[in-house]
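Worked problem 6 (solution included).
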Amino acid sequence: MNTDERVERSKSKERIDYSKIGFSNLDDPLVKVEPSDKIMVEPVWTLEGDFEGGMYVDYIAEHPEYDGIYVRTGLLKRLEKAAESLDDKYRLVVRAGHRPLDVQRRLLRECMQDYKDDHPEVSDEEALEHARTFVSDPDNSQPPHCCGAAVDVELFDVDSNTLVDFGSTMNVDDDISYLHYDQITPEQKANRMLLLRAMLEQGLASVAFEWWHFSYGDQTWAWFYGKSDSLYGVIDL
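Solution. The predicted structure is:
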């Protein structure tokens, strides 16, 4: 697929049947993402009030050696190339990479509970289905972040010294987080396309429900590019 075809592919909201996608355990270690002239490393746990970040804070308090953002080396190489491809006015901001399974399971539970709190009429099954839209369930898939195969990113505008406006903050479990959501401004849409194309050109895959999430080597990536197996399974440090 060329980049335009990949952009079209990114519009699919098909529910992926992970049971039909195998996974490998390619010998590709986790490595720490380091800042550079084109990459800013600002983890979600440094953001005040971030829903997901607070869970990392608790995890790091118990595991102080977990002191940065980690990804597989294959992903890091493509991430660095994507950053280098951006216009000089932009820097790629990396917010999250590998996610411990403990954090993944808690994130799913709390996303489910938040939805139930806002919609008390729904059943546990309906709340879980909603939560699975935004958080991979380890019980039925190999979660991309837990495989070290996914990153959450945004852009920083050096000229204006501000984050680029994508129409929403990260980690919002609402329709506005959808990659191709149409109820945002033309400028916000263009910003999403700028980030999307930079990542797709390096062979990463997007997801329909989170404009900030991209992956390489996980089951979502395998589905996106029509492969029968992923490269990576779940890994812990």
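Discussion: Strands lie at 22-23, 30-32, 39-41, 70-72, 90-96, 150-157, 162-163, 205-207, 210-215, 229-230.
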